[in-house]
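The records we work with from here on pair a chain with its fold. These numbers are not coordinates but entries in a learned vocabulary of local backbone shapes. To see the layout at work, look at the sequence and tokens printed below:
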Amino acid sequence: MSDTAEVIYDLRGLKCPLPVLRSRKKLAALKAGDVLTVETTDPLAVIDIAHMCNEDGHSLVETVAVGKGHRFRIVKGA
């Protein structure tokens, strides 16, 4: 049995920089290895979420275009 958390965070309707700021705050509350799935409609999130992950040491393992936005799957780094 795994003790890794999987959290879905709906940030649709928010504009830059809120998706990154709220994702960063949510990730801070998780432990290393936990997975955060973020849903956004902000077109700049494709660039901003990837940059945040690179900057903060998280792994962006999936980016998928869905409807009018994107879904990002992030594994929290150490």
Remarks:
- The radius of gyration is 12 Å.
- Helices lie at 18-28, 45-56.
- The chain is about 30% helix and 35% strand.
